[in-house]
Amino acid sequence: MPTVSAETGGRREDYAASCCSRARLPHLDARGRGGRLVAGAGSLPPRPKRGSRGRPLLFAAIIGGIVLLGGIAAAYLEAITVWTRENSDITSMARLADDPDTLQDGERSMQLSNYVVATTQIVKHGATEGEAGCIDRLVDRIGVLLGPNPATNPAIQTLCEQKQTAGHIVNESPRLVVLRPRFDAKGNHIATEVTVVQTEPRPDVIDAALAPSVMVALLAVTLVAAFAAYLLTARTQRRYAALWEAASIDGLTGCLRREVFLATLSGAVAEARASGGRLSVLVLDLDDLKALNDRHGHAGGDTAIRLVAAELQRGLRSNDLVGRLGGDEFAALMAGAPLAEAMAAAERVRAAIAAARGSGPDAEVAVTVSIGVAELAAGESATVLMDRADAALYAAKEADRNRVTPSPA
Length: 409
What we know:
This protein is an alpha+beta fold. Among the domains are: 3-25 and 249-406, Reverse transcriptase/Diguanylate cyclase domain (Alpha-Beta Plaits, 2-Layer Sandwich); 116-199, Beta-Lactamase. Helices cover 47% and strands 20% of the residues. It contains 10 helices and 13 strands. It has helices at residues 54-97, 100-105, 131-142, 154-162, 205-210, 212-248, 258-275, 289-315, 339-355, 382-398, and strands at 3-8, 11-16, 116-124, 166-170, 175-183, 189-199, 279-286, 321-326, 329-335, 358-359, 364-365, 369-375, 404-406. A hairpin with a 5-residue loop joins strand 5 (175-183) and strand 6 (189-199). The chain is rod-shaped and about 135 Å long.
């Protein structure tokens, strides 16, 4: 905002000409409490809430969470697909193992992956062990792998009786068990090589998400999505705040525009009537601005308007709201203030403005104001309240100006 240089009681100060700093923008109800701006005759967009920096972070967290859950679901579906395919591969391999002639035709191989585990163990046989002993030993060592009735299992029968490689599929698992005889130099059956190929239990969502490659990909995508969401939300929030301020704040003085002030007043009056609270308004006008413009030009008139706005801010409470109604006319909303308190504040503002001096383009600028004050009466609307304050303002001007005049209830 432009800076107005003012002198009060021989003391010169520089201060920003902003009668409505960010802390004083409309976020109050009729009793000075935090509340939403309530539109009166027109509909206005709500002011961006203070302390809302966390909203972009919240939005980013939500988007990141959605992306993460979507990634976990995709990883789970992929894991189930791979698991199902590998189960089918084992079943196909088991059918080959059931036919010894097929196994002897050539080497059969299958690439193991995350969900397929292959184990091999050696079961040794005694030198004088016959077919019955071979069956008993295998049933004792690996019977649990072959399912029910292992003693009559065809794979064990084939290996122990014919000394040939045999395979068996346990469909419930599924599990492929391949038995291969091992011989010494004299051709004696001295051991059986048992190879078990099976899939691990069906993966659940947690298993799929905790796979290292999946975790890295999910985290990377989640972070990128969350960061993009944060940037987008923060940018939108900044643009909305800038647009709101441009539409709501007077560029010369920093005060509320007429429409925003009247809408805020309408909401404050409705709140005060509903709760029985008190409320007063000030309406003030520069005295003889035309003569000031004639002496100092329009630049001097702008200096005077900024000076009045700044002194008005200084003389009121921190939660009072000030609006520029147009030209050289201002209004102030004092929520919770009775007429006597508003009169005292108005007199402070009048005296401060009369004593202040602004630096014009060619000389110091001095100005006085006339102020009308009115307190909200029972059942009164915002329009009637402003009309009474306006009438009190014109009464002050007719009484030689530079004075404060109350409006009778």
